[in-house]
Design brief:
The chain is α/β, with parallel strands linked by helices and 393 residues long. Helix content is 45%, strand content 16%. The protein has 15 helices and 13 strands. The strands form two sheets. Strands 3-2-1-4-5-6-7 form a seven-stranded parallel β-sheet, with helices on both faces. It has a six-stranded parallel β-sheet with strand order 10-9-8-11-12-13, sandwiched between helices. Strand 2, helix 2 and strand 3 form a beta-alpha-beta unit. The chain is globular and about 65 Å long. The model has no long low-confidence stretch (mean pLDDT 89).
Length: 393
């Protein structure tokens, strides 16, 4: 590796499936100052039932594919990915190793330790796996492993203050290790309502409620169906849009079959902006979240939201001003949804407030600036030795 004076950053994520972490990676890779940072993205392969962010969003990001890295935990593949990363680190000699998602965080930090390069290590929690994912036994193993990995980290980054507080309560890391860097989003052009509805095959005047996200257990698409059932009985003719895919995609298709005329299952789409523009309300029904980008994107499109009050959602949605927060009870979620559908003036005011708030607080340029500051501080903390060695050559 011939030094050129730039701060070398090795960004590692298990897979670039459609979702918040991949969106953040794309924004960073495209926005970082290439004159100051030699930033390289390392990732595995997306599973068949998942949407590929790199294809659906037409991103310009160049990636280095890591053999064996992906979603599934397989000893052989994980060892292959670990040793591949060690070799890559010894060749690239990064000043900063920046990991995302649990599996990449474990393999990336372990590889950095074993490589002997002396890089600074930062890991990002885009959420956590403390609730809604594991049995008590597996949760205990997860917590213990994250405690060990935290001891190998210079910085622990969270996307929200609540996520940080949850992790600290679980004994993961020390307060001084944490820094909160909220997400940053750049939404594409938002079409007008009529154009968006025509593109999605929706009636121009029907009430429309939308779900945007992965169809997987923690996101609770079954709860969205329960909400839809209550809403449809109070507002006949309401249409329900589900944009996304995942391991529960076939189950959802079977469950909506008796009311198929009311549902539009879109799968993954490149034009997600059309979904936000077409909807009167976006509903999030998750058991656990970090700071869900679908709520930020909905706000940027000027669409009010109804969401469960989980994770750092309350740091995105200002309850009663930019949207409405709820318990996980489908009846309460449905009541909030009906309220917005029946009060267009309230929905419009909340949508306008959400637009102003999210575009101010969650712009991608702020994310890039915060992350550049993180890299500079880490390079100063643990990268001086590498720079000194290079300058002495």
């Amino acid at each position: 590796m011939k030094p050129d004076g730039r701060i070398r950053v090795m960004e590692i994520i298990a897979r670039m499936n459609v979702g918040g972490p991949a969106t953040q990676m794309s924004g960073l890779s495209e926005g970082l100052d290439s004159g100051e940072f030699d930033h390289r993205l390392y990732t595995g392969h997306v599973d068949e039932h998942e949407g590929d962010h790199l294809q659906l969003r037409n991103t310009r990001v160049r990636v280095h594919r890591v053999p064996g890295l992906g979603r599934s935990v397989k000893a052989g593949d994980d060892c292959q990915a670990l040793f591949w990363l060690i070799r890559a680190m010894r060749a690239f000699r990064p000043h900063v190793v920046h990991t995302h998602t649990a599996k990449a965080g474990a393999l990336g930090r372990a590889a950095s330790r074993l490589s002997g390069v002396g890089s600074a290590r930062a890991h990002v929690f885009h959420g956590h796996l403390l609730h809604g994912y594991f049995s008590p036994l597996k949760r205990g193993l997860y917590v213990r492993s994250e405690r060990i990995l935290a001891s190998m980290s210079d910085r622990l980054v969270t996307v929200g203050a609540q996520v940080r507080d949850d992790l600290l309560r679980a004994g993961i890391g020390r307060p001084a290790q944490y820094v909160v860097i909220p997400p940053g989003v750049r939404l594409g052009p938002v079409p007008d309502r009529r154009t968006a509805r025509a593109a999605l095959g929706l009636p121009p005047d029907a009430p429309v409620v939308a779900y945007v996200g992965r169809l997987t257990q923690v996101k609770r698409p079954d709860r969205f169906l329960a909400v839809a059932d209550i809403v449809s009985r109070q507002i006949p003719g309401c249409r329900f849009v589900m944009c996304g895919g995942g391991d529960l995609e076939r189950q959802v298709a079977r469950d909506v079959e008796p009311v198929r005329d009311s549902f539009h299952l879109l799968g993954w789409r490149k034009d997600v902006e059309a979904v936000y523009a077409a909807a009167d309300v976006i509903v999030l029904t998750s058991d656990n979240e970090g700071t869900p980008l679908s709520l930020i994107e909905a706000g940027m499109a000027g669409t009010p939201v109804v969401s469960t009050r989980v994770g750092s959602v309350a740091e995105i949605v200002r309850d009663g001003h930019t949207g409405l927060l709820s318990s996980t009870d489908p009846a309460e979620l449905a009541a909030h949804t009906v309220r917005l559908l029946c009060d267009p003036d309230l929905a419009r005011r909340m949508g306008e407030s959400a637009h102003d708030w999210t575009r101010h607080a969650f712009d991608v340029t702020r994310l890039v600036s915060d992350t550049e500051h993180l890299y500079r501080s880490l390079c100063g903390k643990a990268g001086r030795r590498l720079l000194a060695e290079e300058n002495a050559r």
